[in-house]
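#struct-help
A.M.: can someone run this one for me? Single chain, 396 residues.
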Amino acid sequence: MDARFTEEQQQIRRTLRELITERCTPDDVKTAGRTPSGHDLALWSALGKELGLPGLALPESRRGVGASVTELALAEEELGRALAPTPLLATSGLVAPLVTALGTEDQRADILPRIADGALTAALAVPGTGLATALGLVADNAGDWSGGGRAGGVQATRADTGWRLYGQAEQVLDGHSADLLLVAAHTGGFARSRTLLFLVRAGADGLVRTRQTALDESRPQARVELRDVEAELLGAEDADVTAALTATGDTAATLLAAEAVGAADHALERTVAYVKEREQFGRPVGSFQAVKHRLADVYVQVQAARSAAYYAAWAAGTGTERAGGLALAQALEALRTSAAEAVQLHGGIGFTWEHEAHLYVKRATGDELLFGPVHLLRARAAQAAALFEAGAEVAV
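D.P.: on it. C-alpha cells below:
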C-alpha cells in the first residue's frame, strides 16, 4: 500500500473543503436538515453538476469520473468534517454499486449516468431495521431479514405486468426524497426462498413514504410502505444478491469510516482551538497537563481511525480484502470520543443547542445505532477472519 496521495486526490480534498467551508456552516447544516428534502438542494446541485461527485467512482463509460473507492472516501471525509447533509452515501455508496454489480445493461445505461451527474438520487430500502445485517456488517447475511416467507418484511410476487411488492421498510436513508428506491424483497415462498432487489420509481401507485424523526437530522430516514406496488427486477432472478450486498456493505462501511474520521478530526480541531482561548485561573485551559493528555489521547485515536479508513479504501479499490467493517468500528469509536470531549472541554457552552458540538454527538450516536454497534462490527470482522475458530493462529 502506498500511503501517499496523488496531486489529483489532493485537489479533490482542497476543492471540496473550500466549497464545504463556504456553503456548509453549522447553521446551514441545521437549516438543511429541517427542509422537506433533508438536504441542501443547491449544495447537492453544485456537488453533482459542477464537481461530478456522485459519479466519482463510476466508470467514464457511464459519464462518471472513473476514480476508485479511495477518491470517494476522501470526498466523504471532507463532507464529514462539516456533517454536510447530502444523499451521496445512499446514492453513490449503496445503490450505485448494486446497480453496477447486478443490473442489466439497459438498467445500468439508464440509471448510472443520471446518478453520475446528480440528476437522480436513490435509496436502498431494507425490511425492518436490518440494514447493517443485510450489508453483512454485524452478522452473517443469511437473508432472513427480508421476511423469509413469513409475515412481515417485503414480499414480491409475480404479476401479468411484472412484479408486485407488498410490505414495509424502516430506517431508509434519504428514502423520503429519493427519485429511485432499490427495495430488497423476499420471494419464492419456502420452496425457493430467496432475496431479490427491485427498482421502484418515485410516485409509483401504492408507494407511501414518511420521513421519520431521527436523532441526527443531517442523516434523514424514512419509513417506506409498499402496498401492491409495481416494481422492476434488478438484474436476473439467479443473481447472487447476498454476495453483492456484502460487497456493497464493505464499500459503504469504508465511506462511513472516512466520513466519521473527518467529523472526529474537525471536532478535535475546534476543541483544541477553544481550549487555547478559554482561560481559567488566569491561564488558558489548554495549558493544563490533564487537558493536554485528554486531547492527545483523542488525537491518537483519530489518527488510528484515519489509517484504518485509508487502508480499507485501498483494500476495497484493489480487491485485496474487506476491511471496511473494522475501519468503521474504529472510526465510530473515535468520533464518539472526540464529540464527547468537545462537549466537556467547551464548558457551559458545549451543552447548548446553539453550539455545534451536539451535532457531532448525534452523528456518532446515530451512525452507531444504524450501522453498529461497535462491538458487533468487531465481532463480525473477527468471525469473517476466522480469528477464534479452532486451530486459528492468534498473535500474542
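A.M.: thanks! The chain has a mean pLDDT of 89.
D.P.: also worth noting: The first strand starts at residue 122 and ends at 125.
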